[in-house]
Amino acid sequence: MASIRISSFIKYALLIIVSLLFLTPIYVIIVTSLKPIQEVSIDQMWALPTALDFSSYKLAFDSLAPNLLNSFYLVIPATLLSALLGAMNGYILSKWKFRGSDALFTFILFGMFIPYQSILIPLIQFLRTIELYNTIPGLILVHVVYGLPITTLMFRNFYASIPDELIESAQIDGANFLGIFRHIIIPLSITGFVVVAIWQFTNIWNEFLFAVTITTGTKQPVMVALQNLSGSQIVQWNVQMAGALLAALPTLLVYIFLGKYFVRGLLAGSVKG
Amino acid sequence: MQSKRKKKLSKDQLTAMVFLLPSIIFIIVFVYGFISWTGYISLSNYNTIVPDFSFAGLKNYLYLFNDFRFRADLRNTLFFTILFIAVVILLGLVLSILLDQKTKGESIFRNIFLFPMALSFIVTGVVWQWLLHPSTGFNKFFNLFGIQPKWYTDTTILAGFKWGSIEFGLPAAIIAVVIAAVWQMTGFSLAMYLAGLRGIGDELREAARMDGATEFQVYMKVVLPLLLPITMSVVIIMAHISLKIFDLIYAMTGSGANFVTDVPGLYMFETTFRGNYYANGAAIAIIMLLLVAIFIVPYLWNSRKGDN
User: Fold this and answer.
1) What number is the ipTM of this complex?
2) pLDDT tens, B237-276?
3) Are B21 and A85 in contact (CB under 8 A)?
4) Which residue of chain A has the CA closest to B18?
5) For chain A: N or C, fewer Cβ within 10 A?
């Protein structure tokens, strides 16, 4: 009995220590962002603000607002489109298998792992040619296309749990390929859509390499703007921390309110073809 | 159903193929086509703002392998990958085992360890840049003990030996980047292991306990071997993230003095988009792709075999 007490004490002590370490950055972000400029100094980094001051949020919001808007214009259509395409592909590759469809799936899946540097130069040349370079629609196209492997994978795994008999009986009732998709598959896969949408929303919102190479100036999504904000020496730390929190807020809120689906997305993204 | 389909393609199956076609074309062009085009550029003389596709042979690759910066990049990538994966796996495993034992407040702890996954590497980089700034942050604590880590501004190479033009060893500055990356990604291995532990039936562990195994033995002899496939998945996913890492380093440290925190992703970005050395940038990109492919292709191959 005594030994169990001790080990359980050690367990909670460890968990609490690691938790506190994990929360430290959040503490620093919040505390710093709420300080007036004269309190933001190296010596007082860990101290609580003497009085709450929201002026850094105003400054950060003023400079990030247009880019936050860009990010929403980007992430909403890109998420919806890639979820729809992924659902269709997943439906075909799990319920309408044909010769070579499994090999084809692996062929698609490889696109998930490539370093995007290896397609970046031609991609930019291509976007310039079709006049979508430095546009939000251009970025949407990019995220939809390079999202295909992961969304297809997630829906394919999700649809594997829907019994084939359901499709067969619908066929006997005279439903065709699209009818089955619309009336049977989509209603059954609301959870799948939520999981995929959260995954895509988070990834596209947080993405940086495409954003920084495909857009400039007023077209940049928020992560690029945040990086520019912190890259400039003039900006105070309290404004940077407020900016970081503003930029992170949408995905943090998704995590807080839809955490269960967020984790499912994480696990679903871990292959198992 | 299967056999009926194989005989002749039904109208529905043709429709299915038609609907799949756009995605396949996208993948062929945007993935395989663009990779081929990058490969072609990497063999050209396109090292100015004006496209010059004349054939250069392996010149750009030879240049890289003789380049101090690229050698440092490969060293940094190697040590970053090893350290990062080792800590993410160990920490994720330990935390998941702690949480798995009927822990009170499990969901609170789990949420705390997982939330950094919702953030972007840019946010992580901005925040940890400050936390590990040599004169602020955690150093306020370390100073109490009289130590003063220089973190990402340190140019020391630990346990290094001279290898060609570079000092081969663990760059001390990389440790700072690993800390930030571990903070962000441990939640992933934790979630994977927790799912794995929940998947292992209690009967198996119960049986081992009945046979007189201690809790420690139950984990070492029964649980850990069963978690091996999960460890494999985590290693593969973390390896491919760390081999192509770019944004965290870009936001947190940049390439560092003597390129102690430089990585191929950063070098490729600066070479191509700041310097207009397209062929050199393409060559870096192709080498990155090959590094990732070494891990990914066998993995995809295996998971397909497991499928059939």
Assistant:
1) 0.93
2) 999 999 999 999 999 999 988 999 999 999 999 999 999 9
3) no
4) A92
5) N
